[in-house]
Design brief:
By secondary structure, the chain is an all-alpha fold. The chain has 2 domains: 110 residues, Rna Polymerase Sigma Factor, Chain: A, CATH 1.10.1740.10; 70 residues, Arc Repressor Mutant, subunit A, CATH 1.10.10. It is globular, with a radius of gyration of 18 Å.
Length: 197
């Protein structure tokens, strides 16, 4: 196995590669089995596939400024615990559970923080849409838990319903229902009738 420093460097390099550049494989179970056997390259491919899911789950649960660091912690923890994965085909659900647990641990271990008011924010965003994006993110975070993750995975990470189901271990039907109901509640919160998934 490679050292943690080598893995951290590999993770940063993989993060820089867009998901579209990631190799297409339909065999997550095979990659998970290879990773359990110590194949860092196979784990890197899993990282490239699942980084968006981990990002979306964390974004639904922790402050946005903490997400990037926590992504690295989630994947490092997954690499260290890959031998405990009982069913290689359940890698996505197993990783989603680690991600949710890490988000919960973040609040247990961190001191309470106060966010700066918008008027004191460091630098204005290049796009005039930043305040609107923040408002939508806050509205999504105010929805029931069952709707937050699927909506962020769909709207922020650009994942399709079937991708969300495949990566999180949820059924396609539950993802479809949660997206539909979540969008309905989000439209109501934002007072919009034009939002679409």
């Amino acid at each position: 196995m490679e050292s943690i420093v080598d893995l951290a460097t590999a993770f940063r390099q993989l993060r820089a590669v867009s998901v579209a550049d990631a190799p297409e494989h339909n065999d997550d179970a095979g990659l998970a089995q290879a990773a359990r056997a110590g194949d860092a390259n196979a784990f890197g491919q899993l990282y490239a596939r699942y980084a968006r899911m981990v990002h979306g789950i964390l974004l639904a649960r922790v402050p946005p400024a903490e997400v990037d660091d926590l992504i690295q912690e989630v994947f490092l923890q997954a690499w260290r615990r890959i031998a405990s994965l009982r069913e290689a085909g359940a890698f996505g659900g197993w990783l989603a559970m680690i991600t949710r647990n890490r988000a919960t641990d973040y609040y247990r271990r961190s001191a309470p923080t106060t966010e700066l008011p918008d008027s004191l924010a460091a630098a204005p965003e290049a796009s005039g849409r930043a305040p609107e994006a923040r408002a939508v993110l806050e509205a999504i975070k105010g929805l029931p838990e069952a709707y937050r993750e699927p909506l962020l995975l769909r709207l922020v990470e650009g994942m399709t319903g079937p991708e969300i189901a495949a990566q999180t271990g949820l059924t396609p039907a539950s993802v479809r229902v949660n997206l539909h109901r979540g969008m309905k509640q989000l439209r109501e919160k934002l007072g919009r009738k034009d939002a679409h998934v």
